[in-house]
Write a structure and sequence with these properties.
10 helices; eight-stranded mixed β-sheet; alpha/beta; 8 strands
Length: 308
């Protein structure tokens, strides 16, 4: 029962290790802070060292005795993903929160030549999960929570044009990357079950939460009027990031979370306590999930030992 579930309901996480991508601000920062508050050791996997260290300091200030550490991770560069995984020294990993992402950016490419939204939102996290899989399996009952969006409903994946080379529309590309997140969770859950693993792969989305994700594109393009308008909408309509983090925290820690579940805000999928969220039928396709999985392995060069 999720009625009224809040951060105070997060179970004790003592003795557990968590990695949270994009933990320097917004939902990722709050997720990391609350996991640390409940006793977890948390690695803040962020691209920017200064902002990552500042986030770690903020959490230590807010949570007495917090065990948090910054670790460099650029999801737009697979060599950085590989370094992060190689440097991860813990014997086990209990929680992997695939939170970081970009939204509705002008067309661009990652260091490896992938369309930015597909490359960061999906391929970077796919590679990270695969490289950390042995540590996740060693934990027994580990969870992988991937943050998608209600806007996945904008577009199904286009297997013939994963990098949006034929035609690019920023919002369609975003929707496809978020569909890719859900297909990844679906296929990971299916493969984990087939292998007899206790790994739980689940998805979450924050609804309409006030973070810097919405303003990033306008700021990048120096569209000051659009940036101010978005900021105004965030203040008037959006729920705070602390509320937007609840579906992720619930999926990561609540008892009985089912594999391949999709948790979001209860009220119209935009606000409120976490609960089951609607998802497009195409995100539960075994055929599409396997095709995307195989393509992602080929593109990243990362295979999931024991699950592939």
């Amino acid at each position: 029962m999720t009625q009224g579930w809040s951060a105070r309901d997060t179970p004790d996480q003592s003795g557990r290790t968590a990695v949270v991508t994009g933990a320097n601000s917004g939902i990722g920062l709050i997720t990391a802070r609350e996991l640390a508050r409940c006793g977890a050791r948390v690695l803040l996997a962020c691209r920017d060292e200064r902002r990552g260290e500042e986030a770690a300091a903020r959490i230590r200030h807010a949570v007495r005795g917090a065990d948090v550490e910054f670790a460099a991770l650029d999801l737009a560069d697979l060599s950085s993903v590989r370094r992060f995984a190689a440097d991860f020294r813990a014997d086990r990993l209990d929680l992997l929160i695939n939170n970081a992402g970009v939204m509705a950016l002008p067309y661009g490419r990652t260091a490896d030549g992938f369309e930015t939204q597909f490359g960061v939102n999906h391929l970077g996290h796919f590679a990270l999960t695969g490289l950390l899989l042995p540590k996740l399996l060693a934990a027994g009952g580990a969870r992988v929570v991937t943050v998608s969006s209600g806007l996945h409903a904008l577009a199904d994946i286009d297997m013939g044009d994963l990098n949006s080379e034929r035609k690019y529309h920023r919002w369609i590309a975003y929707g496809r990357s978020k569909t890719a997140n859900l297909l990844f969770v679906h296929e990971l859950a299916r493969r984990a079950a087939a292998a007899g693993s206790g790994l739980v792969a689940a998805a979450a989305h924050p609804g309409y939460a006030s973070t810097n994700l919405q303003t990033a594109a306008a700021r990048m393009e120096h569209r000051r009027a659009a940036e101010r308008l978005i900021e105004l909408g965030n203040r008037i309509v959006a729920q705070p990031a602390s509320a937007g983090a609840l579906p992720t925290l619930y999926a990561a820690t609540a008892p009985g979370v089912r594999p391949d579940s999709f948790t979001g805000p209860r009220l119209l999928g935009m606000r409120g306590a976490p609960g089951p969220s609607r998802r497009a039928s195409w995100t539960r396709s075994d055929v599409a999930g396997e095709r995307l999985w195989v393509a992602s392995e080929q593109l990243t060069g990362v295979t999931f030992a024991g699950l592939s």
